[in-house]
Design a protein that fits this description.
Layout: E1 2-3, E2 10-11, E3 16-22, E4 25-32, H1 33-41, H2 43-72, H3 74-91, H4 101-105, H5 109-118, H6 126-131, E5 135-139, H7 149-155, E6 161-165, H8 166-172
Helix pairs in contact: 2-3
Length: about 180
C-alpha cells in the first residue's frame, strides 16, 4: 500500500506508475495513475508535455540534420574528420588546439575538394567517400611524426593530404612513404 501525494488516498502499488529501479528495488511515482492522468489533461500538464516533446524532437532534429549533412556534403565530412584527427593528435600530447580549420588547412573549401579529387584513383568518387568507409583521407607525412604543435599544424596542411583506400591506409599506418 502507498499513499498518493495528490488525493491522499491509500492505494495498491499497481495503482502507481513505476519511477525507477535501483539495486533490484522498484520505486513508484508519488501520484497515483488517476491523479497523474488528471494532471496531464490540465493546461499546465499539457504545456509541460509540449515542452518535453519540443526538447526531445529538437535534439533529434539537430542530430539528424548533422548526420544528413555528413552523408550528403563531402566538404563537411572532410572537415569533421580532419578536425577530429588533429584534435586527437594534439590531445594525445596535451597540446591545445589554437587555430581555426581554414587557417591550418591553408586553402578554401573549393580548393580542398579539387585537391582531394585530383588525387582520386580508379573507383574513387565522392559518393563512395560519403556512403561507405572505404576511402580514408590520409596524411602523407603522419601527424604522429610531429615533434611540436607548429609541426602538427604544418602536417595538417592540405598539401599533405591524399585519399587512400581504407585497407591501404590501415596497412600504411603511421609510416612515411
Amino acid at each position: 500500500m502507498k499513499i498518493c501525494k495528490t488525493c491522499k488516498l491509500s492505494k495498491e502499488l499497481t495503482e502507481f506508475f513505476p519511477a525507477a529501479k535501483y539495486k533490484d528495488k522498484q520505486y513508484y511515482r508519488g501520484e497515483c495513475k488517476e491523479c497523474t492522468k488528471v494532471e496531464l489533461r490540465s493546461e499546465s500538464g499539457q504545456k509541460a508535455q509540449q515542452k518535453y516533446r519540443r526538447s526531445i524532437h529538437g535534439h533529434t532534429m539537430k542530430y539528424s540534420y548533422k548526420k544528413r549533412r555528413r552523408e550528403t556534403d563531402p566538404f563537411h565530412k572532410l572537415q569533421e574528420n580532419l578536425r577530429r584527427r588533429l584534435r586527437a593528435s594534439l590531445d594525445g600530447r596535451n597540446w591545445r588546439k589554437n587555430s581555426k580549420f581554414n587557417e591550418y588547412i591553408g586553402c578554401s573549401k573549393e580548393e580542398l575538394i579539387k585537391h582531394i579529387e585530383s588525387k582520386f584513383t580508379e573507383g574513387m568518387t565522392w559518393e563512395v567517400f560519403l556512403t561507405t568507409d572505404k576511402i580514408h583521407i590520409d596524411h602523407v607525412t603522419p601527424l604522429s611524426s610531429a615533434t611540436c604543435i607548429e609541426e602538427a599544424y604544418k602536417l595538417s596542411h592540405y598539401t599533405n593530404l591524399q585519399p587512400l583506400w581504407a585497407l591501404d591506409n590501415i596497412k600504411k599506418s603511421n609510416k612515411i612513404e
